[in-house]
Amino acid sequence: MTTTETDGFIDELRAQSQRYHDQHPFHVAMNAGELNRRQLQGWVANRFYYQENIPRKDAAIMANCPHPAVRRRWIRRILDQDGTADGGGGIEAWLRLAEAVGLSREEVLGERHVVPGVRFAVDAYVTFARTRPWVEAVASSLTELFAPDLMAERLGAFERYYPWIDADGLAYFRSRLQQAPRDSQHALEVVTEYCRTPEQKVSAVAALTFKCDVLWSMLDGIGRAYAD
Ligand SMILES: O=C(O)c1cc(C(=O)O)c2c(n1)C(=O)C(=O)c1cc(C(=O)O)[nH]c1-2
User: Does the interface ipTM go beyond 0.95?
Assistant: First the structure.
């Protein structure tokens, strides 16, 4: 692939940022300090369902990917979420966030607050990774290209507007500031390496559009369930 071809493809992928969930009214309200305690709790409990399914999604990508060099780096994502021992990893950090907003670990792990739209959207993402060509599933992870700005904004907003949340509870977002750029850079390298034909490139962009819709639908479901 020539540089120009790659550039055009990467531009198209990056253009999907227009559909990213940073612009969803629920996130806009969150970052403007307009959510109450119940709404933040609802978001944290529902987003946990996404977190706990991310390693299963990544394991599906690895199961479908025939390239050792890709799998060797991809496996890091699973360890980032699951940790390498009890008490470590992103899922545990998210549970600490849940406690910091006043939820118990049990109620979050029990998925009692998970609304149907969130369950549908997250399950669709995992199914996508299980059933579509592995490189499309890699492309669908590229929303992480857009995540660091949102994460930085969220950290500032939480410290400023929601001081009742213990700052230690925000460790998850701090760790993602480093992890997301590393992961999305790798995913971008993989997608540009393995999507060569126009059809493959169209499918990769469509996969990323699909993923933006997954994230958007989750916030639709949460916003409706926890409306004022
Ligand atoms: O809080 C967010 O806005 C946000 C967004 C995304 C994303 O853009 O997909 C991820 C995460 N967080 C996240 O924490 C995470 O581990 C993650 C993994 C993935 C993925 O698709 O593989 N996206 C995201």
Answer: no
